[in-house]
Amino acid sequence: MMHARVLYQMMRADFLERVRRTSFLLALGFSLFLAYAVYTGQVTLVLEDYRGVANSAWLGSVIALVASVWVSLVGFYIVKNAVERDRQTRVGQILAATPLSKAFYTLGKTLSNFAVLAAMVLVLALAAVVIQAFGRDSRGLDLGALLLPILLFGLSAVALSAALAVLFETMPGLKGGVGNVVYFFLWIGLIILGEPSVVPGARVSHWAPLVDYTGLGTLMSQMQRQLHALDPLYRGDASFNVGPLHPTTKTFLWNGVDWTAPALLGRLMPVVAALLLALLGAIFFDRFDPARGGLGRTPKPSKAKKGSVETNVDGAMREAIPSAANLTALEHSGTRSRMIALIEAELRLMLKGKRLWWYAIAAGLAIGCAATPLEVGRSGVLPFAWIWPLLLWSAMGTRENQFATGSLVFSAPNAVPRQLIASYAAGVMVAAATGAGVAVRLIVAADIAGLGAWGAAVLFIPALALALGVWSGGGKAFEALYTGWWYIGPLHHIRGLDFMGTTAGSSTGAAYAAAALLLVCIAFAGRKYRLALA
């Protein structure tokens, strides 16, 4: 009983600390935006030419999928900072000095993450009540049929996201940007795992809902069976999309989810998995021990260099014997050469620490763009060539905040415009180099429009990274947004969202060139704003 009270107090304190942050209000605002998207038809659930009659069962099912699919994705990036925040604020060192076990800590952080995401789901549920009660096409209010699927599907899905956020923060190699990218593809894999139940003609086990993380397969398969009983000509196609693919011409009466034993157990499985993942995170958790590197390895003490400051056993500071140092006079150079040197420095920082295999893969993708047929290189290889440098771009505009070097960097004359321009130029150079193979093929083919779309992407990608990095102070916002946008737009060649111009039909190069200019201006305004607050 005492342990449960300690766990509750830890979770409560962490949740209340998050509630006071602006990011929490933004998260709730995102939930309201999702509800508004459902109300306006920007998020749609269609079965060929059919959609459900606007009753509580149908709206509750659609909002349930919104909660389980989109909140589980975006919510991970919202809460994936709980452990790191304790590390940065030195609260972790205080907790490490208490008898609190590692398992209790990771479990408490998981519960705190879950409380934040559950608040987002509850906002969606309240918005669904308002839509159903006052919507123009509503067919009466049935609270049970409306709220039960939202709570069961939504809360179970975000429970797993909450636990994965803690696990990724404690596992070496997944704490930073790599983990943000890995989660996106893990999220897609988990959805695909539950999708066989919605494939027309597929033979599906009665217990398929047990591996249906979001409930997408469970809901759609039940809708397909009910609709097929009403219309034998229905072929079994179903889709859950952002943006309407085509207007529906028919409606059918959806009676609500059939809560069979597999369907209920399917909602319990993510919760059980979340508890196990929270305990698994305790194995990798370093308990804020600065001496632990990687999986419990203790870094070797570095040898003191001459002229450095050393610390003796008693903690007193003593200066090592200084060596003679010669200072070279700074030669005068023009503004142009200084700018070139600054761009070179930014590029070196961007590429710092990358191993030979990273360059080998980047070179292989660039060669693949040039060696394959133009359409294959443009639509198939180029998106992967421009997802590979993701972590290089995500650091743009964030280093000064991450390493607390802002006061040093911005003390130089005209530092804000020069440093931003240099960082942006370095990002553009990376984009141009990794996608150069397609540019060469477009030039050879005299495809001026395609080359313009390629150039717009080269300008747009680093501009987006720079703007998000400056305003958010970290790379997580760009990593999450870019990965999702890359998957939905360029990889599926959707016009308006394909910022890479992977096909002639999906290319909107002029719009993204203009967006790049706007984003650079936004980054400049953000940097000036942050400096004014400092």
Describe the structure.
The chain has helices at 2-19, 22-39, 56-79, 82-88, 91-96, 102-134, 143-170, 177-193, 216-230, 261-284, 335-351, 356-371, 374-385, 390-394, 399-402, 406-409, 415-434, 436-444, 448-472, 476-488, 509-533; strands at 43-46, 50-52, 239-242, 250-252, 309-311, 317-319. With 534 residues, it is mainly alpha-helical. It has two domains: 2-284, no CATH class; 337-533, no CATH class. Residues 293-323 have low confidence and may be disordered.
Summing up helix and strand content along with how strands pair, one would put the structural category as mainly alpha
Query: What is the helix tally?
Result: 21
Domain count, please report it: 2
Shape verdict: globular
Strand order of the largest sheet: 1-3
Mean pLDDT: 82
Cα end-to-end separation: 47 Å
Low-pLDDT stretches: 293-323
**Alpha-carbon Rg, integer:** 26 Å
Helix content: 55-70%
Query: How many β-strands, per DSSP?
Result: 6
Largest sheet: 2 strands, antiparallel
H/E topology pattern = HHEEHHHHHHHEEHEEHHHHHHHHHHH
Q: Name the beta content range.
A: under 5%
Summarize the model shown:
By secondary structure, this protein is mostly helical. It contains 21 helices and six strands. It has two domains: 2-284, no CATH class; 337-533, no CATH class.
List keywords for this structure.
single chain, 534 residues, mainly alpha, 2 domains, two-stranded parallel ribbon, 21 helices, 64% helix
